[in-house]
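Q&A log
Question type: sequence-to-structure
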Amino acid sequence: MKVIPYIDQEKCMGCEICVDVCPQGVFIMSEEKAVVMSPEKCNGCEICVENCPTDAIALKWTDL
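Response status: OK
Response body:
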């Protein structure tokens, strides 16, 4: 199983918290919104999910 982080761009307010708290460096900022730059680095720790003030981040597990 592999985890893939997703960001709901409608909910993202560009606070950069996910960029700051992710120990794996999965997120970057682009056009004042967070984007998933390196999904393969995600280890499923959910620190980004727990810290996102707008619940814009979800982790999805896949067999791929």
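Response note: The chain has one domain: 2-62.
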